[in-house]
Design brief:
184 residues; mainly alpha; 9 helices; 0% strand
C-alpha cells in the first residue's frame, strides 16, 4: 500500500486527531525512517495527501476538457465521480475542512486548492460557453470566472452531504445540480 493510501485509510478510520504517524507507518508497511525522510509531521503528510488528491482531480478536469465534454453538469458529475473513486470516504474531505478552520497551514493549502479548482472550472465554463453557446471569448471568460465559485460550492455541497448522509443522498443531489445547471 502506498503511503498516501495508508494515510487516507488511517485518517478516515481514526480522524485527523486520532491518527498518528505510528499508525500510518504500520498501515503502510514502510519503515519510519523512510517516511520521516519526507515528512517530519503528520500535518505535513496530511497536506501532501490532500494536495495530491486535488491535483489528480484537476488532471481529470483537463482530460474532460481535452475530450470536449465541458458542459458544467458533465464536469461536476465526472469530477465528483473521480473524487469518490479515489477517496471512498468523503468524510475525510469534511475533516480537512474542519482542520482548515483551526490550522493555518491546512487553511493555506485549502485556499490554494480551492483557488486552483475555481480557476480551472472557470476556464472550462468559458470554453463551453464559447463552443456550445456562441458567447464571445471575453464575455465567456468573465461569466466563467463569475460562476466558478458557485460550481465549486456545488461540489463541496455534494461532498458534505455525502459525507454526512451517505450514498443515498448522492443521486438526488446530482439530479438537482443538473436541473440547476441546465439554466446556464
Amino acid at each position: 500500500m502506498t503511503l498516501g493510501a495508508a494515510a487516507m485509510c488511517v485518517f478516515a478510520r481514526e480522524g485527523f486527531k486520532g491518527a498518528s504517524m505510528a499508525k500510518i507507518i504500520k498501515e503502510s508497511g514502510m519503515s519510519a525512517g523512510a517516511i520521516y525522510t519526507y515528512f517530519e509531521t503528520k500535518e505535513q503528510l496530511q497536506i501532501d495527501v490532500a494536495v495530491g488528491i486535488v491535483d489528480a482531480k484537476i488532471g481529470a478536469l483537463d482530460e474532460l476538457s481535452a475530450a470536449g465534454d465541458t458542459s458544467p453538469g458533465a464536469v461536476i458529475r465526472r469530477f465528483l465521480e473521480a473524487m469518490l473513486k479515489d477517496m471512498p470516504d468523503p468524510g475525510l474531505v469534511v475533516q480537512v475542512w474542519g482542520e482548515a478552520a483551526v490550522e493555518p497551514d491546512v487553511r493555506a493549502m485549502a485556499g490554494q486548492v480551492m483557488g486552483a479548482l475555481t480557476e480551472r472550472l472557470g476556464r472550462m465554463v468559458a470554453e463551453w460557453l464559447v463552443a456550445q453557446r456562441g458567447v464571445p471569448e471575453a464575455e465567456a471568460h468573465v461569466r466563467g470566472q463569475a460562476v466558478a465559485p458557485a460550481l465549486l460550492g456545488l461540489c463541496q455541497g455534494f461532498i458534505l452531504r455525502r459525507g454526512l448522509l451517505g450514498d443515498d443522498a448522492a443521486g438526488a443531489y446530482l439530479d438537482a445540480v443538473d436541473a440547476l445547471l441546465d439554466a446556464l
